[in-house]
Amino acid sequence: MQIALEGIGKRFGRDWIFRDLTFTFEEGKRYAVTGPNGSGKSTLLRVVAGHLSPSKGKVSFAVGGQPLDVDEVYARVAWAAPYIELIEEYTLDELLRFHQQFKPFANGVRTAEALELIELTHARHKQIRNFSSGMKQRLKLGLALLSEVSLVLLDEPTTNLDEVGAQWYHDMVRRFGEGRTIVVASNVPADYAFCESEVHIMDYKSPARRRVAR
Q1: How many domains does the chain have?
Q2: Which CATH number fits the domain that encloses residue 70?
Q3: Is residue 163 part of a domain?
Q4: Burial letters for 70-98: b for 16+ Cβ neighbours within 10 Å, e otherwise?
Q5: pLDDT score for 192
């Protein structure tokens, strides 16, 4: 998916989170959105996903060169973030099957294979409420990267992951990220080491700091 941002800004009340941001996320490429905690990275991701409208400027979407209405974007986006809630009453097996009703897994991956890929086969019949924070984060990342979508948004992807989990995350991106637009929001360089371009959110905090995204 291609997402074109034309002079966008977002504010809540009188406070601008960012402003005058012009940038294009090209199909099949990988991007980092960087900046300190609380700087507005997650807000920008919500705009990129079509979940939040900008206060000024224009956002347009396209797939294969064909314009895409914002109402059609949801089905083509997968998102993983520590603050996204899972249905905790479900077992892992139930959640994987429920998820696939809305966003099937890519490359014909089935539930049993998905369990192996996210390395949680041992917890197949365990309720999500009983998962550790690391297991939940691994599950969120797995759902996002395995889904058959054209845009993958990863917000602080290695939160709650240990060193082994962080390596698993990079392995999954290498295996399932090909051909899709990936946007990683983080202030940890290792999280987005594979990205080709960067948008530094602090460059768009005030007119005096206006720059072109790198």
Answers
A1: 1
A2: 3.40.50.300
A3: yes
A4: eeebeebbbbbbeeeebeeebbbbebbee
A5: 97
Closest CA relative to residue 99, chosen from 83, 115, 121 = 115
Question: Cα(18)–Cα(138) distance, rounded to whole angstroms?
Answer: 30
Residue 147 lies in a domain: yes
Residue 211, token pair as written in the block: 């720059």
Q: Does residue 34 form part of some domain?
A: yes
Q: What is the span of the domain harbouring residue 192?
A: 2-209
Taking only the tens of pLDDT, the chain with its 214 residues reads 999 999 999 999 989 999 999 999 999 999 999 999 999 999 999 999 999 999 999 999 999 889 989 889 989 999 999 999 999 999 999 999 999 999 999 988 999 999 999 999 999 999 999 999 999 999 999 999 999 999 999 999 999 999 999 999 999 999 999 999 999 999 999 999 999 999 999 999 865 444 444 4
Strand pairing of 197-200 and 30-34?
A: parallel
Which residue reads 């396209």 in tokens?
Answer: 62
Question: What's the distance, CA 164 to chain centroid?
Answer: 21
What is the SS3 assignment for 57-105?
EEEEEEECCEEECHHHCHHHEEEECCCCCCCCCCEHHHHHHHHHHHCCE
Task: Supply the pTM of this predicted model.
Answer: 0.91
Q: Is residue 15 part of a domain?
A: yes
C-alpha 114/C-alpha 187 separation (Å) is 29
Q: For residues 80 and 153, is the Cβ–Cβ distance under 8 A?
A: yes
